[in-house]
Amino acid sequence: MASHSTDTLALMELAIQQAKDALQFLEVPVGCVIVQDGKAIASGRNRTSETRNATRHAEMEAIDILLEQWQRDGLSELEIAEKFSQCSLYVTCEPCIMCAAALSILGIKEVYYGCANDKFGGCGSILSLHLQSSSEQPHGGAKGFTCTGGVMASEAVSLLRSFYEQGNPNAPKPHRPLARQATD
Amino acid sequence: MMEPKLANTLIRRLNQIAPLENLRHVKRIRKRSLEGGKSQLSVILCLACEDDNQWNCVPENVQELVNSYQLSPFIAQVCKYAASSKEEWEEQCKLWPTSYHPLTYNIDGIMGFSEEDSQSIFSFMKFAVELAKSSKELLVNAAVVVDPSNKQITATACDQINSWLPPESKHGHLFPALEHIGYEYYEVEDVQSSSITSPAKRPMTNLTNVKNEDKQVLHAKDSCSISERPYLCTGYDIFLVWEPCTMCAMALVHQRIRRIFYAFPNPKAGALGSVHRLQGEKSLNHHYVVFRILLPGELPTTGDTVAEIADKDVGADTLQCPLTN
Q1: Which of B38, B184, B192, B210 fits as disulfide partner to A53, beta carbons 3.0 to 4.6 Å?
Q2: Residue limits of the CMP/dCMP-type deaminase domain (chain A) (predicted)?
Q3: Number of helices and strands in chain A (H, E)
C-alpha cells in the first residue's frame, strides 16, 4: 500500500465510501469515482437490487451520469471521447467483463481498482480487455487503458465479506436445500 | 473371462496399451451373475477388425496378456454412441454395459429442435431482422426478448447508438467506439424491461418508447405478484441480428438469459465466438447456450433443418442451426 500515492488513496477512499453506501442499501458493496484533473467528477455504486437490473454496476452508474451531463451540455461525440480520454476510474473491485469492455469502448485513460474479481474480472482476471493495443484498434474501436490493482484491496474485500455474510435477499432460492428435502 | 482379483490390474494395463478412444461411455468390464451366487467377469481387450478375420488386429501386447492370464477372447458388440435417455441406456446395457450421464441442465435445443420450435425460432429471428431494417440507420442491431414458455415477445429494441448525436456526426461503421454506449443502452434497457414485466407483447421500436414503457411497467408491477416474475431474465431467450460485443454478451450473462440466437457474426467485436467466447468461460456464474441462425439467403448446400452440436462441453455449446422456411 505504501507504493500508492496519498492522492490515489484519497480518491479510492471516496470509492470505498460509495461501496459502504451500497452496503447500507443491501447492494453488493462496490463503489467508484471518475476523476478528471485530480478531481472526482462523478461517483457511482452498485444498484442492481434496487433497479432489478443486473447490469447497473457502479461503473455504469458513474459513466451514465457523465454521458447524460455531457450530452445535455451539447458536447459532440468527439468532444465526449476527448473528455473520457482524460478521465481515470477508481473502483473498489476490478471491473467485470461488461464494465471493462465499456471503459475500453469509451477510451478511458486509466483504472485503479481494489480487489481482483476472479469470477468476472475483465482487467486481467478472466479477460484482459485493458490490454488492447490502441494503435491497431482491432476490436471495433475498443482501446486499451492502464490498470493498477490492489489499491486498498483489504478494505474492499472486507466490505464484500460483510455483504455475503448477510446474504442476497433477491437471489433465487438455492437448489441444495431441495436435495436435502429429497433425502429426508 | 477372468478372475475378479485380476480385474484391477488387467483394466489398468488394457487402458494403457489399448485405450478405447471415442468409446468412453462403454464400460471396460462386464459382470454377469451365474447360478449359485457366482459371477463372471468379461473385459474388453481391444476393437475387432471390420474385415473377415476379426482377430487380425489384436495388438501383440494384448495377445501377451491373453496368453499369460489364460483369457478366452470372444467377439462382442457394443454401442457406438452414448445413450441420450434412460430407456436407450437400458437397451444398450443388454448388449454390453455403458455409462449414462443424464444432462444436469435442461435447455431445449441442445438435442435438436422440433419442427414447431424451428418455425418459431425462425419467425422471431425474421422479426428481429425486420426490426433492424426498419431503422433509418445503417448496420443496426435489433433485439427481441422472448419468453419461450408461451412464445410471447416481452421486449424489443434497436441500437440507439446515434440517437443523441447531431446528424452530421452519424456514420455507418459497424460498431465505432462511442456508439457502443448506445448499444449498451438498448441492451440494458431492453433486458431490464423484460426482467420486470409479466409477459406481454409490447412492440417497441425506439429507446424513448422502451423507457416510457418501462415506467408504466414499473407502476404495473405493484399489481402483479413478484413471485410470478422470473429472477432477472431467467428462462428467457434473446434474438439478435448481430453477434453481441463483449460488453453486451457479458450484460446478458449478468441478466441470466437462457439462450441467445444471432444471425450474423461480428468478426471485429463479437464475444460469442468471433473475438471472445463468453459462453465457454468456466468461471462465470451463468452460462447461456448460443445458436447461430443461418438465414435462407446464406444457407449452405444442405437445405434441411439441421441442429448440429459443434462443441459438447457443458455451458460452452455453440450450435449451428440452419433453418429453412
Answers
A1: B192
A2: 6-134
A3: 7, 5
Give me the residue label for grid cell 457479458: B250
Chain A CB within 8 Å of residue B139 CB: no
* Among the partner residues A54, A81, A171, nearest to B177 by beta-carbon distance: A81
Place of cell 431482422: B129
Predicted pLDDT of residue B204? 29
**What is the spatial distance between Cα A141 and Cα B172, in angstroms, rounded to a whole number?**
13
Q: Is B14 in contact with B62 (CB distance < 8 Å)?
A: yes
CA A53, A55, A59, A64 torsion-angle sign: negative
ipTM for this prediction? 0.88
Under the banding of pLDDT at 50, 70 and 90, the label for residue B243 is very high
Would you tell me the crossing angle of helices A6-24 and A153-166 to the nearest 10 degrees? 10
Of residues A24, A27, A153, A25, the one with CA closest to residue A90: A153
Nearest to B239 by CA among B132, B134, B143: B143
Answer yes or no: are the C-beta atoms of B46 and B19 closer than 8 Å. Answer: no
Helices A97-106 and A58-72 cross at an angle (nearest 10°) of: 30
Q: For residue B307, what pLDDT is reported?
A: 34
Q: What CATH number was assigned to the domain covering residues A6-166?
A: 3.40.140.10
Q: In which residue are the cell numbers 422471431 written?
A: B124
pLDDT at B178: 32
Nearest one of B104, B195, B194 to B157, comparing CA atoms = B194
Query: What residue segments make up the domains of chain B, in order of their start?
Result: 4-95, 103-159+230-324
State the smallest CA–CA distance between residue A82 and chain B in angstroms.
11
Inform me whether the C-beta atom of residue B247 falls under 8 Å from chain A C-beta atoms: yes
Q: Is B184 on the interface with A (CB under 8 A)?
A: yes
* Sheet of B308-309, strand order: B152-158, B142-147, B237-242, B259-264, B289-294, B318-322, B308-309
Per-residue CA distances from B18 to B7, B30, B64, B74, B76 (Å): 15, 17, 13, 16, 16
Residue of B nearest to A171 (CA): B231
Domain chopping of chain A, boundaries: 6-166
Let me know if B176 is exposed, middle or buried by CB neighbors in 10 A (0-12, 13-18, 19+): middle
CB contacts < 8 A, A to B, total 118
Q: Is the CB of residue B168 less than 8 Å from the CB of residue A77?
A: no
Q: Which of A13, A27, A50, A59 is catalytic?
A: A59
